[in-house]
Design brief:
about 130 residues; alpha+beta; six-stranded mixed beta sheet
Length: about 130
């Protein structure tokens, strides 16, 4: 199955939309990339081994009511979603920074499964 590696806290934010919604924040439904994709369909979310510290601080400042976990699963599959579009703009979406945004729907967490990540899309057997 197609898989995309995403650093934490972004992978957690994508796979836990209900927590954002409960805090009255919009779900993270855009994954920012420097490259476009024509792929549409199911996608596994792999959490990379490195934490995006700058991103973590941005989330804390931008969404102060959101309680992030003290520890994130890293270095494996953490969730799944559907990639429905690739856009170059998303007015009003606080998660879109561009230049390209992969539009993600129906995201949900999966039990953590250790797995090596790769750049771009890669295949993982389910």
């Amino acid at each position: 199955m197609k898989t995309l590696s995403i650093r934490q806290p972004w992978a957690w934010l994508i796979t836990h939309p209900e927590i954002l919604i409960a805090c009255e924040y919009p779900p993270k439904d855009a994954e920012n990339r420097t490259w476009p994709t024509r792929y549409r369909g199911p996608l596994l979310i792999h959490a990379g081994k490195a934490l995006d510290r700058e991103g973590w601080h941005w989330v804390r400042q931008t969404f102060p009511a959101l309680r992030l976990p003290e520890r994130f699963d890293m270095g494996g599959i953490v969730g799944e979603c559907n990639l429905t579009d690739c856009v170059e703009e998303a007015p009003g979406n606080p998660w879109f920074f561009g230049p390209y945004g992969f539009v993600l729907r129906d995201a949900r967490p999966l039990p953590f499964r250790e797995s090596k990540g790769q750049l771009g899309f890669f295949e993982v057997t389910t």
